[in-house]
Every structure is written in structure tokens, then in C-alpha cells.
């Protein structure tokens, strides 16, 4: 029996979230799926954090025949991408698609954004994207041109400066990766 391809989907902690939906579509299409989540971020958001949602998502992925693993990771930490890849590869094998649907988004405008908030947005939305792509590129062993890197964003800057600016940087990082890889 041929091995299923493996996707790593970041930011898949809520059953109604984009990351969870992407993970489910991939599992249904024949992929094994590693997911990441960060409960402290969700707990600070209006929707809150329900640790059972990650378990429910894994049950759903398995119902499609997928092997799956979940990895709680603080993407503001520089070491997180290598830890994530180590865990995902240990459980599922080599990753052939990286889908980044994680984000840090606390709405503030130019005058109300603190330096700490600005820095945290860039650490999660831009720097983690760069480090995840770098780790994916370092470990990828598939045929040239067969790997996939996908990043999810929106164009929301006015009234949400740190999110929009950091996702704009993420966009440029992904474009550079597309050209360099």
C-alpha cells in the first residue's frame, strides 16, 4: 500500500477555523495531516479555547483514513519550527506540503499599537512563517517541484496595523520562497 502524502497545517485549533477546514479537506483527499495549535492565544481571544476541539478535529481526520498528530506550539519562539517538524516527522513521516494558517491578530490602529504587540505580531506572522519555510526547505526530500507551501492571509491593515503589516511581510516571504525554491 503506498504511503499517503503528509501535510503540516498550522493554526488548526478550532473546529470552525480555516486551519481545521483545510486539514479536513486534505485528510478527505488522501493526506495524513499534522496540525499545530496554541491554546493560550485562543484563550485570550473572544472565542476562547476549548482543548477538546483539537481532539475532535483529530477524530474527524481519522474518519477519512488519515493518520494525524497534533502539536501545541508557541510560534513566537524561534525554536518552534524545528520542534514542530521533528514531532510531525516522527509521527507521520516526511512532510510534502506546508500550509500556514496560523496568525496572531489583536486589532489596534497606528496610535494604539504597542511595541510589544507589534513585535509579537511580526514574530508569529512573519518570522515564524520564514522559519517554517526554511525548515520545510531544509528537510524536503521529494522530487523537485513536488512540494507545496501555502500561506493564508487577508488584506486587513486599516484599524489593524500590526496584523496587516506582519501579514504583508509574510506575503513577501512566501513570494521569495516561491522564487528561490
Can you walk through the features of this model?
With 181 residues, this protein is α/β, with parallel strands linked by helices. The chain has helices spanning 18-28, 39-44, 52-63, 80-92, 115-139, 161-180, and strands spanning 6-10, 32-37, 68-72, 97-100, 148-151. The longest helix is centred in the last third of the chain and has 25 residues, at 115-139. The two termini are 30 Å apart. It has a 5-stranded parallel sheet with strand order 3-2-1-4-5, with helices on both faces. Helix 4 (80-92) crosses helix 5 (115-139) and helix 5 runs parallel beside helix 6. Helix 1 (18-28) links the parallel strand 1 and strand 2. The protein is globular, with a radius of gyration of 16 Å.
Q: CA-to-CA gap between the ends?
A: 30 Å
Average residue pLDDT: 92
**Helix tally?**
6
Beta-strand percent range: 5-15%
C-alpha Rg (nearest Å): 16 Å
Main beta-sheet annotation: 5 strands, parallel
Structure class: alpha/beta
Which of globular, elongated, flat, extended, rod-shaped describes the shape?
globular
Helix content: 40-55%
SSE arrangement, N to C: EHEHHEHEHEH
Extract low-pLDDT stretches: none
**Strand order of the biggest β-sheet:** 3-2-1-4-5
Instruction: Count all strands and give the number.
Output: 5
